[in-house]
Structures are given as structure tokens and as C-alpha cells.
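Protocol step 4 of 6.
Sequence for YggT family protein (Peptidiphaga gingivicola) entered exactly as in the expression construct, tag removed. Do not edit the line below.
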Amino acid sequence: MKIAIGILLLFIQFYMVLLLARVVIDIVSMILRDWNPTGFALVAVNVVYKATDPPLRFIGKYVPPLRLGPVAFDMAFLIVILGLGILGRLLQQFV
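Step 5 output, C-alpha cells:
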């Protein structure tokens, strides 16, 4: 059982790294609007988006963005990060 929980914890940590990579990619694409990844960077960006899009879109359907004036914050990302963090902490109790 400890091995399965350890593997699940490893998956959670890897997914959180993918979410962090998505934040970096989004920031770079906002700052450098004419940035078009090519080669390995294009493959890496596609992998990150394909892995992180399904849960973010699913939660985004039910949780609207938080509007603060002209800015809208996507709450789905925050919910996924917090959910994974809490799940990871709970699983660490059993290792």
C-alpha cells in the first residue's frame, strides 16, 4: 500500500511541476506576444497544455473567473493547485 501511495504522491508532484510550467509558458507568451515555440519547445508546450487542460477546463465550466474591475482571475488553476496540495498532504499521512 505504501508503494501505491508513494507513486500517487510522485504523480501529484509531477503534475504540480507541469502546472508551474504552464504558468511560466503563459507568462512568457503574455510578455513576448510574437513568441512562437519551435522544435523541442513546441513539443514541450504541447505536452504541458495537453496534460493540464482537461482538469482546468472541467473546473472552469463550473467556477466562473473572479472579476476585479477589468481583470478576471481564473479560479480553476487555484482550485487544482490547492486540491493537489491538500491531497498530497493527506496522502503523506499514510506513508
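Step 6, annotate. The longest strand covers residues 66-68.
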